[in-house]
Please model this.
Amino acid sequence: MIAPVSTPDLMLARRAAAGHADAWDELVELYGDRLYSLALHFAGNREEAEDLTQEIFLRLYTNLRQYRGDCPLVSWALRLSRNLCIDHYRRNRQERRSLRVSEEILAHVPAGDDIHAEAQWREEVEAVHSALREMPEEMAEVVLLRDLQGWSLEEVSAFLEIPMGTVKSRLHRARLEVADRVQARFRGRWTERAGSPTLEASPC
Model:
């Protein structure tokens, strides 16, 4: 369960909204990495993620006075960011004919001299993301948040504002569909190598 909102959250939001630069800097320091990481997985590359993060913080700043402290500030910030991320995702999913894979994910390509293994790993990463792009948004986003962002089920539930049971059922179906799509792309050869992006059809 999400912890009850703390008084410092409300104080921080009020001071930032009132124009105190130190409070705004603290808010950016606290949530900047997390919001950028969220933007990166919806945008797919650093440049767009940076622009999207700027939009997110602008939206946060202009809406801070609406924060009433009835939930943790981070949860409120993430919910406020959701529409921007989803809108960006919608605008770009049809425009991109080929997926630009996240640099953050490709940074974890297994080390070594096996060029063919590295190329195959990259292709598998692209296949996973390509499958997500082709799926309905409501299914793709639970995988993006849970499996690629590493959020807890509780966080996904709060962010998407859907019951926990719905999160679990969507995640289970989405993982199965991603696996099916990737398997079809590689003609049934699903590589289970350490470090490869695998999605298990687990309910959580």
Observations:
- The first helix runs from residue 7 to 17.
- The CA atoms of residues 43 and 88 lie 7 Å apart.
